[in-house]
Amino acid sequence: METQKRFSIQSYWVVLFVFGLLFSCEQLDPMEEPLAVLEEFQDLSGLALEPEDDPINGRLVYTSDCESDCIEPGSGNYFAIKDSKSQSSGINTKKVSYKAYNTEDKFVVKVKYEVTSGPSQAKASITIQINGKKKEFKAVPSGYTATFAIPLENGWEKCEEVIFSIVQKGLGTPISFSEDYNLILVCKNIDKGLILWNKLGSIEEVLNSEVGPDLAFFDEDDGLNISANRAFVPGKIGKGITIAPGDYFITSRIHNLVLNNLNSVLNPDRGTISVWFYQKETPVGYEHNPYRIFDGPYGLEAGIGLSSFDDSNEGKTNVLLFELGKEESYVSIKYDDFNKFNGQWVHIAAVWDREGISGSNETMQLFINGTKVASTTKNNWNSGFGERADIAGANDFPEGKFILDEIKIYNVAKTNF
C-alpha cells in the first residue's frame, strides 16, 4: 500500500513536470518564430547578406529631385534616400540603417540590423510601416536586411508623399525612424531612338552593352597612341570607368574604350550623346589634357568629339567642347568655365540635327544637367563619320582625373534630360 502511494505521488510530479514543460515551451515558441514565415524577407532579400550594390537587382542613386528626375523603365536604377542610427548600452552597440525608394510599381523600404560590438548572435525585431500598412520581422539576425514593399496606388503622381516608419527592438533601447519620401515618376518615351547604352561599370558591362553594339578595349601601341590602364570606381549609378596609373608620357595619346564601325552606328544628320561625367581636376596642357569623353582632340579621327579641354590659348581655362566634321567642313560649340563643375557629377548631352533641333534653326546644342548651355545654327559639317571613336581617353598623365558613367547614344535629337 505504501509502495503504491509512493508511485502515485511520483506519477503526479512527473505529470506536473511534463505539463509545466509543455506550457513553458508554448510560451517561448513565439520568440523563436522562424525567418521562413517572413515572405518579403525571403523573396526580396534571401536568407543571406544582401550585396550593397545590388538591391533587388537594381542600382540606387542617393540624390534626386522628384520634379525633374525619372526612372528609366527596366533599367533597375532607382532614386533612394537612406539614413542610419547607432546605439550603445554597456558593451553592446547596434546599428540600424535603411534605404527607401520607389520602383516602377512599388515602394520599397529595406532595413539592415547590425551588432557592431557585443553578442553578435543577438537578434532583433523590426517593424516597418508604409502608409499605414505594417509588417513585423521577428528574430532578425545581425547583418541581415529586412525588406517590405507595397504596390503603388493606381494613378500615383510625381512628388506624391509616402509616409513610412521603422522600429527596431532588442539589445537595448529601441531605434526608430519616422520619414517621408516623394515619389519619382517613370520616364516617358525615354528609349525612343536609343541605339546604344553601356553602363561602363565593369569589364563585363563594357563588353556587353545593354542596348546596341558592344564596346571594345583599345589594344594598340605605335609609340604615340597607346592603350590605357583602366579602373572601375564608384560612379554616378553603380560604377564608372577612369584611367588608372600606367607608363604614360607627355603628349602620349591614351585611348581607353573604342566604339567600332562608328559610321554605321551614328547618323551624321542627327543624334544625341548622353553621359554622366565627373571631373576631379581641370585639364592642363602638357600635363593632362584633353579628357576625351567621346573622341575629340588627338582621338581616333571620329569626325565627332565631346571633350573637356584646356583652351587657355583662346583665353579660356577649361571648355566643354562639342565638334562635328573635319577640316573645312568643321563646326564646333563650347561652354566656357566648365571647371566650375569640378568635384561633382554632371549630366552632359551633345545634340545635333542638320535640319534643326525640335523645329528650331539651331543645329547643335550642348546640355549640362538638362540646361542648354551652347548652340549654333551652322550645319555644314561632313556627311560621314570615321571608323571608330575613343571613349574615356586622354593625353599626358590623366590617371584618376575624371570618371565616365552610363553612356547612351540616340539616333534622334533628344532635348529632354
UniProtKB/TrEMBL annotation:
GO terms assigned for molecular function: hydrolase activity, hydrolyzing O-glycosyl compounds
InterPro entries in alphabetical order: ConA-like_dom_sf
Gene3D superfamilies: 2.60.120.200
Name of the protein in question: LamG domain-containing protein
Biological classification of the source: Bacteria, Pseudomonadati, Bacteroidota, Cytophagia, Cytophagales
Organism of provenance: Aquiflexum gelatinilyticum
GO biological process, one term: carbohydrate metabolic process
Pfam families on file: Laminin_G_3
